[in-house]
Specification:
This protein has 293 residues and is α/β, with parallel strands linked by helices. Strands 1-4-5-6-7-8-9-10 form an 8-stranded mixed sheet. It has a single domain, classed as Alpha-Beta Barrel (TIM Barrel). The mean pLDDT is 96. The chain contains 10 helices and 10 strands.
């Protein structure tokens, strides 16, 4: 398999075959994100992609490949004919594939018609990962997310209507100390409106070279402390209303790993978070040296 530039995937795709279909991110403006800085976005040629698919087909003869993840900051942005070509080739050549996943954003979903999304689902696209970060319109504008809360909700509903499972991520601390409470409440509201199948909370880590890091160094942005992050998490879980969602905060950036089926385990999860915050016992938290992006 040939990879170019930065390759990332969701934690839940750890065991998946990683097939790179694009390089970088078509948006690449978020103030907090260092991932694709300096990389020019491009879509790989089908010949490049097919070569990797054929290589993977040889591996699948020995052991079936159940999941494939299409790498790129927002692979759904690819033109519909190219995506269909890729999905068909994966299905035809790689033995055992049960689900194909990719990253999406509000713009890439908006560019696809409901019929096109249903076509992708029929060809094996089983899950889309949507970075929400916050339910606050003010915060989304500040971090240059390129989408409003309503556009994010519309994208989520459009994916679900096509039969594609929805996994969303939110970012603890992205509102800073000043916007912490509003961020948590607004994010709980947008999660309720989206009602995703999966939701994950990551904790903001400031990375040199990003505009948000520069704001922090200049004192224009104040990061919540460890327990401030957890208070946000407790509000998000406690105020959200899910139909059937698997909620996690077990990413390496998080101080308190959480895995909960909501709404069934909501009360127990909120109670655990409250107890940790009230105890102020740092031994209950992931130490700094084990945290990472």
């Amino acid at each position: 398999m040939k990879y170019e530039g930065m390759i990332i995937r969701p934690p839940s795709e750890a065991g998946s075959l990683l097939l790179q279909v694009s390089v970088g991110c078509s948006h690449n403006r978020c103030t907090f994100c260092p991932t694709y800085k300096g990389e020019k976005f491009r879509i790989k040629s089908f010949d490049e992609i097919r070569e990797d698919i054929l290589e993977a087909s040889l591996l699948s003869r020995r052991r079936p490949v159940e999941r494939v993840f299409l790498c790129g900051g927002d692979a759904l942005i690819l033109p519909q004919p190219r995506l269909c070509e890729i999905l068909n080739s994966v299905r035809e050549n790689i033995r055992g594939v049960q689900r194909i996943g990719l990253y999406a954003n509000a713009k890439s979903v908006r560019k696809k018609s409901p019929e096109e999304l249903k076509e992708l689902h029929a060809l094996g696209l089983g899950i889309a990962y949507l970075g929400v970060e916050s339910g606050s319109g003010t915060i989304l504008e500040k971090i240059r997310k390129g989408a409003t809360p309503q556009q994010l909700v519309d994208a989520a509903r459009k994916l679900k209507a096509a039969g594609i499972s929805l996994s969303v991520t939110v970012l603890l601390g992205i509102g800073g100390v000043e916007g912490s409470a509003g961020h948590a409440l607004d994010t709980a509201n947008i999660l309720t409106e989206m009602d995703p199948d999966y939701a994950g909370a990551l904790t903001l880590m400031l990375v040199p070279g990003t505009p948000l890091y520069d704001d922090w160094k200049a004192g224009r942005f104040v990061l919540p402390d460890k327990y401030g992050f957890l208070e946000e998490l407790g509000i998000m879980i406690g105020r959200s209303r899910f139909t059937n969602c698997f909620f996690t905060s077990n990413h390496a950036s998080n101080y308190l790993p959480i895995r909960a089926r909501l709404p069934e385990e909501k009360e127990a999860t909120v109670r655990l978070i409250r107890e940790v915050v009230e105890s102020q016992d740092k031994m209950l938290l992931r130490p700094e040296y084990l945290r990472g992006l």
